[in-house]
Amino acid sequence: MTFLPHSLTGRLLFWLSVGAAGMLLVLGFFFHGELRRLVIASVDTTLHSKAQIFTGLLHEEHGEVELGLSEIIAGEYVIPRSGHYYRVMRGKTIIAASPSLADDDFPFVAETALSAVGTTGELFFTARGPAGEPVRVLRYHHQAFGDLFEVTLAESLSDGLVMIETFRRFLLIALSLGVLLLCLASWWIVRNSLAPLAWFTATIETITHKNLDERIDTGKTVHELAGIAGSFNNMLDRLSHVFESQKRLVADASHELKTPLAVIRTQCDVTLQRERSIGEYTEAIQFIRDETCNVARLVNDLLSLARLDAGLMASTESAPVRVNDLIAHAVRMTARPAEDREVRVMIESGDSLMIQGSRPSLEEALLNLVENAIRYNRVGGAVHIAASSEPGDRIAIEISDTGCGISEQDRERIFERFYRAAATRGSDGSGLGLSIVKGIVEAHGGEIRVASTPGEGSRFTIILPAAIRP
Amino acid sequence: MKILVIEDERRLARLLKQGLEENGFTVDLAHDGAEGRFQVENYPYDGVLLDLTLPEVDGLTILDSLRKRGSDVPVLIITARGEVDDRIKGLNLGADDYLAKPFDLNELIARLRALIRRSRGKPSPLLTVGDLVVDTNGRTVSRAGTEIQLSAREYDILAYLTLNAGRVVSRTELIEHIYKTDYDWDSNVIDVFISYLRTKIDKGFPTPLIHTVRGAGYILKAES
Fold first, then answer.
1. What is the pLDDT averaged over residues A254-280?
2. How many domains does chain B contain in total?
3. Which of B15, B27, B31 would you mutate first to test chain A, the one with the most A CBs within 10 A?
């Protein structure tokens, strides 16, 4: 319905007006028709009574049949074109006709098809009178005195038609006024009915990022809007949850970034506050260098997380990746720390296993897990990496270590950003590694699980979709 | 002046200790909230550097319980949480000052000195008793306009006595405010330093400033 206005008020008003006008028109037509029917019916009744009288007034005198019209009855037929007419015929001869006909005879022919034939042989129809006025005609045949008489009576419809015309004008004015009034009333009603919508809009507009915890009072709005208000509140809940976690992340990130910066700054200030030996300067610079590496790693981790959050793990990068390549990469990158801590790394993997995904991300995820398994292992411990295919076209990679394990309460939180299990505090990890791994795995439509026996070790399992075989 | 540094980031704590010690402070370290709270509640300190995000007990909780116990030790909050809300909360809970990480070490030391002086009712960095002047910024001492060379320990003891001029200070109090908490002390060491100080400060002047109060300790005052 493109011709309809875009506003709800406009639409409601349009349909209400069309409906009201239509209804009033139908009613008007009905009353108009009914009135006309009533007028004609009353004229017909008059004609019928008069016919009775006329029949009674026919009498035979001297072998001639005459119409003995009394003065009272004759009165209205005397004035020419008074609107009251009669004619009595015997065969082809007029034996009596009203003076009101003057000189004109007229055929009293029906204008339209004959409408009704009474059971008594009476025939009513509408025709034109001598003055061209509409008349109602009654024609009937009367058997008397051994002959057949045709009596025709006519009554002008002018009075009735004037009344109908007046009524029609009245109806026209009343209809227009009615439609106008209805329009105004409906405009008022529509406006008032839509007032809660305006309130709703105004309330929504007051909600910004600064007062995201404000809600629309569903009890205050009308029943029909309560649903929308509820959904809107739910949306606000979700938004404010995301907003809060983003705010917390920014606060955490700034805390985590400022701390190593404070260390570097203080190292500089302390070193510079007096003359020092070459050895002390060298030590200070090395310290600053190490700390800078930590900051760089943290910044990289934060950027990885930001990319994951923004959904920038482009699916265009998605390609089949050999699981063995991923494992080999992780083992190669961790060879130094593994050697330092005397940790043995064992691999158990089928050659043909392929994962569908982004190679750099998957490498990062696996490297993180293997790094953790080595860093938090005991000296001389072991790391076991095993890959196998799972039902449902999925591939599981397990990384088990012989470290101190993860307590149950830590297990619930280790994937949270910046969370460090008690045992890892004070180490130089950023607290973001596992969040990143989880983010990468989930972005690939996979899942990550952790099992651990404190004191014996932990096992991380990532389950990822297998490569699509061409 | 003895300072307690409550900071869980060990590298920063170690650097603060070094930086403060090189500026004449005596420093104790606490690496978590529980340890920090125990130390600040059980040992006398001239000032506390307090980090807010701490394991076990967080900084604001330590501050709150410290003030509720009626302690008025100057507390300088150092934190990476730089939001105005956190500052207001910290100051409302009774912190004396606030520094956001990363901070300037010299600013930190200047603020810490000012806090300690003000807590003793002496806002000026120049402390005077009679004609003795102690410059707490330059760590220099002069009497009647003549500069006097002091060793670090001698200065520490004199500065503490000057800050508390007119009040009897016991040997134990001096040791507690000048030596680290784990120092295995012998109060005779104070008597030795006092006798050095007397030689350097009072000798050759008509009115002695350092007085011994028998059985109680020492007092620094201009008139006898």
1. 90
2. 2
3. B15
Could you say which of A251, A262, A291 has the minimum Cβ distance to residue B103?
A: A262
Residue B166: DSSP 8-state: T
Task: Report the alpha-carbon distance of residue A431 to residue A194 in Å, rounded.
Answer: 53
Same domain, B7 and B115: yes
Report the alpha-carbon angle A258-A263-A264, nearest 5.
95
Q: Which of residues 355-374 of A touch B (CB under 8 A)?
A: none
Q: Are B6 and B97 found together in one domain?
A: yes
Q: Do the bridges between strand B126-129 and strand A64-67 make them parallel or antiparallel, or are there none, so unpaired?
A: unpaired
* pLDDT over 60 at A115, yes or no: no
Chain B interface disruption, residue of A259, A271, A294, A428, most B CBs within 10 A: A259
Report d(CA A379, CA A403) in Å as an integer.
Answer: 9
Instruction: Measure the CA–CA gap between A294 and A260, rounded to whole angstroms.
Output: 8
Q: Which domains does chain A have, with CATH numbers?
A: 8-164 (3.30.450), 223-308 (1.10.287.130), 315-465 (3.30.565.10)
pLDDT attached to residue A236 = 87
Question: Do B63 and B156 have their domain in common?
Answer: no
Mention every residue, 6+ apart, whose C-beta is less than 8 A from residue B189: B175
Q: Is the peptide bond before A454 cis (omega within 30 degrees of 0)?
A: no
Say yes or no: A250 contacts chain B, CB-CB below 8 A. Answer: no
Query: Any chain B CB within 8 A of the CB of A293?
Result: no
User: From residue A84, how far is each of A140, A165, A173 by CA, in Å?
Assistant: 17, 21, 33
Q: What is the largest CA-CA distance in chain B?
A: 57
pTM for this model (two decimals): 0.63
Here the tokens at position A381 are: 């411990």
Percent helix, percent strand, percent coil in chain B, to nearest 5: 40, 20, 40
| φ, ψ (nearest 5 deg) of residue B96 | -95, -25
pLDDT tens-digit readout, B16-56: 999 999 998 999 999 989 999 999 998 889 999 999 888 88
Say yes or no for a CB contact (<8 Å) between A269 and B106. yes
Query: Six-digit token pair at B200?
Result: 């350097």
User: Residue A424 pLDDT more than 70?
Assistant: no
Q: Tokens 């529509």 appear where?
A: A190
Of B92, B119, B146, the last residue of a domain is B119
**B-chain residues near A287 (CB < 8 A):** 11
For A50-79, write each residue's pLDDT tens digit: 888 888 888 887 777 777 777 777 777 878
Confidence of residue A88 (pLDDT cuts 50, 70, 90): confident
pLDDT interval class at A105 (50, 70, 90): low
Instruction: Please name the member of A254, A255, A270 whose beta carbon is closest to the beta carbon of B19.
Output: A270
A254 touches chain B (CB under 8 A): yes
Q: What is the pLDDT of residue A370?
A: 93
Could you report the predicted ipTM of this complex, rounded to two decimals? 0.81
Q: Which residues in chain B have Cβ-Cβ distances shorter than 8 Å to A258?
A: 80, 82, 100-102
- Does position B189 have pLDDT exceeding 80, yes or no? yes
What number is the average pLDDT over the span B60-77?
92
What residue of B is the nearest CA neighbor of A268?
B105
For residue B53, the enclosing domain spans 2-119
How much is the pLDDT for A432? Answer: 85
